[in-house]
Amino acid sequence: MHKVMLVAALGVALAGCGSRDDKAAQADANAAGFVPPAVTSRVDFSSAMERRFRNLDRNGDDRLDPSELPRQDSRLMNLDRNKDGEISLIEWGEGTLKRFDQMDLNRDGTVTSEEENEWRTARAEGRRPAGAATPPVLGDTLSNQGTTAR
Questions:
Q1: Are residues 115 and 103 in contact, defined by beta-carbon separation less than 8 angstroms?
Q2: Cα 57–chain centre separation
Q3: Cβ-count burial of 90 within 10 angstroms (0-12 exposed, 13-18 middle, 19+ buried)?
Q4: 42-56 helix and 89-103 helix, angle to the nearest 10 degrees
Q5: Cα dihedral 30, 33, 37, 43 in deg (nearest 10)
Q6: Does 126 have pLDDT greater than 90?
Q7: Which end of the chain has fewer CB atoms < 10 Å from its terminal CB, N or C?
Q8: Residue 136: is its pLDDT beyond 80?
Q9: Residue 110 pairs with which residues in a beta bridge?
Q10: d(CA 118, CA 120)
Q11: CA torsion through residues 42, 90, 117, 120, sign
């Protein structure tokens, strides 16, 4: 009699677990398609880009030559401002932060996944990203651009 009750209790417990497992599996399936928006600060982006530079710089000379880039004829060579055939850590940092600033459409110091997607889409379509801050007006005294000391 005790064995029958134990088997019945075990059966009920297992049935409950299966149901819970099914619910958890369904919740996981529902969540699998959801990707929360990513937010990256300028500081975090800069740190990640420096780590990438260090990983690419196989010989540790603080310069990237074409042999250290992921592929030949890489667009990364556009970061070589002085056209010496190598990308210095300074050129890399300035170039990657310029890209971050272009993606930061609302100029709040962070780039969300939505901003990045809009920036990439607009670039591919040859248009200005929606929601992009307007550039400063030349001569605007608050922008400090276009003014000279007298």
A1: yes
A2: 21
A3: exposed
A4: 140
A5: 110
A6: yes
A7: C
A8: no
A9: 41
A10: 6
A11: positive
